[in-house]
Each structure stands twice: as C-alpha cells, then as structure tokens.
Amino acid sequence: MAFFTHQISRSLCSSAARNAAIKHITVIGGGLMGAGIAQVAATTGHSVVLVDMSEDILKKSAKSIEGSLKRVVKKKFADKPEAGEEFLQKAMKNISTSTDAAAVVQKTDLVVEAIVENLKVKQDLFSTLDKVAPEHTIFASNTSSLPIADIASSTARLDRFGGLHFFNPVPMMKLVEVIKAPGTSQQTFDALIDFSKALGKHPVSCKDTPGFIVNRLLVPYLMEAVRLHERGHGSKEDIDVAMKLGAGYPLGPFELLDYVGLDTSKFIIDGWYETEPENPLFSPSPLLNKLVAEGKLGKKTGEGFYKYK
C-alpha cells in the first residue's frame, strides 16, 4: 500500500510540475539568437540564465542585450526616462550567465538550445543535460532545419521535448514556430505555446517536417531566385526589385540571402537534398556553393551576392 501511495504521490507531483507556468529559463548559446531569446524572456519577467562555453562570448552577449534594451527604452520610454531606466535595470537583473550548463539546468523549467546547426553537437548537448535536468524540465531546440525527433532521440524525455523556432531579430519578430514532434506530449506542446504567448509572441503550430512552415516555403523560393539568375533569366538586381515592387516584399531574395548568411542557406538546402535528392526544390546551386567556398557569406563577411562596406 505504501508503494502505491508513493507512486501516486510522485505521479501527481510530476503532473503538477509539468502543468506549472514556465518561470526559469536556461538558454544555451550566447550568439545572436540565444541573446535575443534571453532578452525577450527577461523583459517578460522570466528568470534567465544564458550559457555559453566562454566568458568572453557571454560578456559580448550581455553587452549586446544591454545595447538592444537601451534602444527599446529610447523608443518606448522617450517621455518617461525614469520608467525606462527601471525597465532596463529590471530586465538586466533577470539575466545571469554561466559556462556550466549541467549545473544550471538542475534548477530550470525550460532549456532552449540555440547553438550551431549540427545534429551531432545538439544530440551530445541534450544527452548530457538529460542526465542532470529535473524530471519536469522541458527541452526545446531553436533549430531552423533539423528534425526535432532526431535531436530528441539522444534523450529519455521524448514527451518533454519540442521545437521553439524564433526569428531574427528575436526582440522584433513576433512569430514563434512551436514544433510538435511525434513523441511530444500535448502537455509539453501546450506549455510551449503558453510560454511563447507569455513572451508576447504569436505562436503557430508546426509538424516536425523539413523547414516547418516558414523555411519550407522561404528557402525553396530563395533557391529558385538563384537558379533563375543562374539560367540568365534575370539579374540579381532586377529580381530583387521585381519581388519588392511586384510582391511587396521588404527585401529581395538576394538581399535576404545575404542578410541570413549564404552558409546558413547552403547548410539547410544541402541537408534537405541529402534527405530527398529526388525533390527538385532541394537541388543545390553551383553559384551558392561557389560563393560559400570563397568565404563570401553575405553581410557578415562584407560580401555575398552584393558587396558591403
């Protein structure tokens, strides 16, 4: 009888924990996306620990977050400087940093991973964290192209694993794709939806398919623009102007490719091509491959399809 009482008690505690609101967040990866996620979570009252491998990276991340928050304050609190300063200080107080992910996740409700788009690296990270994170802790990846189920397979918490795909720049972009993998429980999915709303974002439900929704439509469009140019059917300048003035897009496809990073787009399309080589939408581009091989990755390197000073 004592055994069954213990089991029931444990089950009820576990269920209550999973239904509790997410308050403590661990963000793995201090790059552009990770810092952006940490900033938004902090400004919405969550306790955030930003984790990366080096203190130097974390110092740069903290500086970037503070600079971004100051721009928000300047815009939103122009007539209320004292309120703006209070907003800034409160948000920064909600963020701490660490180089020890295993120690941090022992007291967290949600782990959001925003590291390099490499399946093995992500699997190794989550496999390690799975051994030390509490039972109630939800794991989520910010991957833009890798299957959530493949990342989750390295853990024993398939039911507490989902996708949270934010968009750059995170503080400005309202959309979050919430991905439900085959093993993701409804409780976990609902918790991720609620968390996204708590951040002030607009979540959309996605299946665990290549590119989810946005990138599944966007990347083939970008690649077809490159192929159009490769065939000599339009200059990159004319294609960009046509899509901005004719379709109302804020950026043309070549401008957007340079902004995103040519290496990122190549990584995504190469991964999809490897999975479905018969799909013409996933065919690689010789021109894109050439530019990446030359180190011309877009705005971040000063040159991609266009040159930047």
TrEMBL record:
InterPro entries registered for this protein in UniProt: 3-OHacyl-CoA_DH, 3-OHacyl-CoA_DH_CS, 3-OHacyl-CoA_DH_NAD-bd, 3HC_DH_C, 6-PGluconate_DH-like_C_sf, 6PGD_dom2, Mito_3-hydroxyacyl-CoA_DH, NAD(P)-bd_dom_sf
SUPFAM superfamilies registered for this protein in UniProt: 6-phosphogluconate dehydrogenase C-terminal domain-like, NAD(P)-binding Rossmann-fold domains
Primary site of residence: mitochondrion
Listed PROSITE patterns: 3HCDH
Keywords carried by this UniProt record: Acetylation, Differentiation, Fatty acid metabolism, Hydroxylation, Lipid metabolism, Mitochondrion, NAD, Oxidoreductase, Spermatogenesis, Transit peptide
Record-annotated site: Important for catalytic activity: 165
Domain of life of the source: Eukaryota
Subcellular location per the Swiss-Prot or TrEMBL entry: Mitochondrion matrix
Positions annotated to bind CoA: 68, 75, 144
Assigned EC number: 1.1.1.35
Positions of NAD(+) binding: 29-34, 52, 117, 122, 144, 168, 300
Single annotated GO MF: NAD+ binding
Domain 3-hydroxyacyl-CoA dehydrogenase C-terminal: 211-308
Coiled coil residues, start to end: none
Gene Ontology cellular component list: mitochondrial matrix
Catalytic reaction list: (3S)-hydroxydecanoyl-CoA + NAD(+) = 3-oxodecanoyl-CoA + NADH + H(+); (3S)-3-hydroxybutanoyl-CoA + NAD(+) = acetoacetyl-CoA + NADH + H(+); a (3S)-3-hydroxyacyl-CoA + NAD(+) = a 3-oxoacyl-CoA + NADH + H(+); (3S)-hydroxyhexadecanoyl-CoA + NAD(+) = 3-oxohexadecanoyl-CoA + NADH + H(+)
Keyword Mitochondrion: yes
Biological processes per GO annotation: cell differentiation; fatty acid beta-oxidation; spermatogenesis
Residue intervals of the 3-hydroxyacyl-CoA dehydrogenase NAD binding domain: 24-209
Top EC class, one word: oxidoreductase
Family, similarity comment: Belongs to the 3-hydroxyacyl-CoA dehydrogenase family.
Stated role: Mitochondrial fatty acid beta-oxidation enzyme that catalyzes the third step of the beta-oxidation cycle for medium and short-chain 3-hydroxy fatty acyl-CoAs (C4 to C10). Plays a role in the control of insulin secretion by inhibiting the activation of glutamate dehydrogenase 1 (GLUD1), an enzyme that has an important role in regulating amino acid-induced insulin secretion. Plays a role in the maintenance of normal spermatogenesis through the reduction of fatty acid accumulation in the testes.
Complex formation: Homodimer. Interacts with GLUD1; this interaction inhibits the activation of glutamate dehydrogenase 1 (GLUD1).
Protein name: Hydroxyacyl-coenzyme A dehydrogenase, mitochondrial
